[in-house]
Amino acid sequence: MAVQNGRRWNHNIHYHPRILRAVPDGAQRALDVGCGEGMLARALRRTVPHVTGLDRDAPSIEQARAYSDDVDYILGDLLTHPFEPASFDVVTSVATLHHMDAATGLARMRELLRPGGVLALVGIARSTMPNDLLRVLAGVTAGTALRTVKGHWQHPSPIVWPPPVTYTEMQSLAAETLPGSHYRRHLLLRYSIIWRKPRES
To answer: Residue 123: what are its φ and ψ, rounded to 5°?
Structure first.
């Protein structure tokens, strides 16, 4: 089942509200990294006047551009596309960081934020056994129950598996690259990082 009651659901979409709640008041420009077919970018556009969706998968960008919205969709790579530093009030990303070197990706997102801007991302990392066994069992059980109720929408974007970085490594990397960031592990086998870039003194 792809859509139930007219609404898409999957493990990534489940955490879109967490991303949207982190958008700072008055944000004028947002960048959604790994936008896929644009679902989160379109949601951002409801409150942010200028939204850019970036993805390096051409079919996904083609699908995104088929929607009637005024999001600027770019076919490109976060690490090489010539965005100006400090040019976005909010940078978002869902299930994208594991498609690239995580440290380099976080540093690039940090660079693109204006002082006072917010980075909000949800990611996938690799579980470590046996330490994470109970977390995995709980996540699989909850995910199965939610799919039964909500259905499951399979996104069209490429999949990378297994994730190269563990949850523990990701937590350490976030603390090192984004001092003061809030890292949290979630039930549905995802983590989130919320970070506000310090204002220049």
So the answer is: -135, 175
Cα pseudo-dihedral 5, 15, 32, 194, rounded to 10:
160
CA distances to 101, 132, 145 from 105, in Å: 6, 25, 33
User: Both tokens of residue 1?
Assistant: 């089942």
What's the total number of domains in the chain? 1
The full DSSP string for 82-104 is -PPTT-EEEEEEES-GGGS-HHH
Q: Which domain holds residue 30?
A: 11-126+161-196
Question: Residue 182 and residue 194: Cα distance in Å, rounded?
Answer: 5
pLDDT (tens digit per residue) in 77-126? 999 999 999 999 999 999 999 999 999 999 999 999 999 999 999 999 99
CATH code, domain carrying 55? 3.40.50.150
User: 37-66: per-residue pLDDT in tens?
Assistant: 999 999 999 999 999 999 999 999 999 999
Contact 193, 178 (CB under 8 A): yes
Backbone angles phi, psi at 19, to 5 degrees: -65, -50
| Residue 27 pLDDT > 70 | yes
**pLDDT, position 68:** 82
Q: Nearest 5 degrees, angle CA 73-CA 106-CA 77? A: 35
Q: Are 193 and 143 in contact (CB under 8 A)?
A: no
In a domain, 186, yes or no: yes
